[in-house]
Amino acid sequence: TVSADFTTDVLVIGAGQSGLAVGYYLRRAGLNFVLLDDQAAPGGAWPHGWNSLRLFSPADASSLPGWLMPRPSANDSGFPTRDAVIDYLTQYEQRYELPVRRPVRVAAVRRSSSLSGSVGSFVVETDAGTYQARAVVCATGSWRNPIVPQFPGQADFGGVQLHSAQYKQAAPFAGQRVLVVGSGNSGAQVLAEVSQVARTTWVTQEEPRFLPDDVDGRVLFTQATQRYNAQAGAAAAPPATLGHIVMVPPVKEARGRGMLGSVRPFVRFTQTGVVWADGREEAVDAVIWCTGFRPALSFLAGLGVLHPNGRVATAGARATAVPGLWLVGYGTWTGFASATLIGVGRSARAAADEIKAFLEAVMV
Ligand code: FAD
Q1: Which residues line ligand 1 (CB under 6 A)?
Q2: Which is the closest atom of ligand 1 to the Cα of 293?
Q3: Of 151, 182, 214, 222, which has the fewest CB atoms closer than 10 Å, so is most exposed?
Q4: Of 287, 288, 306, 304, residue with least CA distance to 296
Q5: What number does the ligand 1 atom closest to the CA of 189 have?
Q6: What is the pLDDT of residues 121-149, one digit of tens each?
């Protein structure tokens, strides 16, 4: 028998947008639940975004279930700022009285058989005691697990290396020679900003793919949903367009300055820079890795369900190998467009419905 400090029916790990959306539906279903989050303040990953970060969709296309994100004031560009998103998530949590405990970091999730109705009971170890729960929902996003590609000589490079997860503003790079690596939206936006003050080169594996100027996040989401629905049942992968670059105003501005050209990757680092594929050496002050993230799920290691790519086998949001375990918000593999504010509600609702049915079955 395991002695736990706390007991709950449903434990949600992570209280960013995904955890809050799950909490909204768990509350509506009348379930007993707790959310744990390792940050000191609300907002999930958003407080770690760079200072100028804005959503690429308007407020009314960026809402969690139940309550529309307030529109920015009329003199604003219409796309909510990072801080507006943090305010929204902070108020959302209060509005629905979601029981978030923070900062609490989850270290490990293990199976336990000591609860009555033992199928799907878990012991969850945290830095603030042990929890026992009948069901666990992972909603930990990915910002804690940035991907940095490895190159020969990297450890000896004397310049600055920074992942977009740590990037805040361009000022520290003023006057420097900077490589921005990565062909996604983060790469394009960081390049746009840093190229205003530094000499930049954009390094991408392939030519970046830009969306038409009039396609913002809302259009993208609507089009992708239509195509996804049309394919549903055919087991086809959803369209890749959510990964293309949205021409937000700073990226358009950088295009106007001729800054969006890109080159293919260098082959190795030197102490002072890099060596390109043609053998040319170049001095570089800083490299900003905009090379993405993996799911932050290391606490599941003991369950033996983590694949080498960092994912878990799921049907929708439900982990297929472990009864009582759900994963919400990690992207299309856990629910179509679930890594967006507008998309996560659907996955959260489905997960809450499944959890309710699961608890009813194990608690008889
Ligand atoms: P997170 O926001 O990362 O929240 C997870 C929480 O869990 C965090 O507080 C984390 O610290 C915590 N946590 C992690 N591990 C543990 C642990 N072991 N124990 C306890 N707590 C833990 N989406 C949109 O909808 N529109 C946009 O315009 C948009 N623009 C974006 C621009 C950029 C540059 C980026 C990077 C993302 C953007 N996104 C956008 C996507 C969206 O912001 C993220 O996918 C979102 O933050 C994911 O929310 P989440 O709740 O799943 O994870």
Answers
A1: 13-14, 16-19, 36-39, 44-45, 53, 55-57, 62, 105-106, 139-141, 143-144, 185-186, 217, 296, 299, 329, 339-342
A2: 36
A3: 214
A4: 306
A5: 34
A6: 999 999 999 999 999 999 999 999 999 99
The interface pTM score, or ipTM, of the predicted complex is: 0.98
Q: Which residues have CB under 8 Å from 87's CB, separation 6+?
A: none
Beta-sheet strands, E only, within 77-218:
100-101, 106-112, 121-126, 129-138, 160-163, 177-181, 199-203
d(CA 131, CA 115): 12
Could you give the CA distance from residue 217 to residue 78 in angstroms, rounded to a whole number?
A: 12
CA angle 340, 341, 346 (to 5 degrees): 85
Q: Taking the mean position of all CA atoms in its chain, how far away is CA 350?
A: 19
Cβ proximity of 167 and 279 under 8 Å? no
Residue of 40, 14, 36, 46 lying closest to 99 (CA atoms): 36
d(CA 215, CA 185): 14
Count of positions (residues) in the chain: 364
For ligand 1, the distance from its centroid to the CA atom of residue 48, given in whole angstroms, is 9
Per-residue burial over 207-220, b = 16 or more CB atoms within 10 Å of its CB, e = otherwise? ebebbeeebbbbbb
Local structure of residue 98 (DSSP, 8 states): -
Query: What DSSP string runs through 121-160?
Result: EEEEEEBTEEEEEEEEEE---STTSB-----TTGGG--SE
Q: Are 135 and 359 a contacting pair, CB within 8 Å?
A: yes
Task: Please tell me whether residue 275 adopts helix, strand or coil conformation.
Answer: strand
d(CA 333, CA 250): 30
pLDDT, tens only, 265-278: 999 999 999 999 99
Q: Which of 11, 12, 24, 38 to mutate to test the pocket of ligand 1 (most atoms within 8 A of CB)?
A: 38
Give the distance (Å) from ligand 1 centre to CA of residue 43: 8
CB of 355 closer than 8 Å to CB of 135: yes
Q: Are 143 and 18 in contact (CB under 8 A)?
A: no
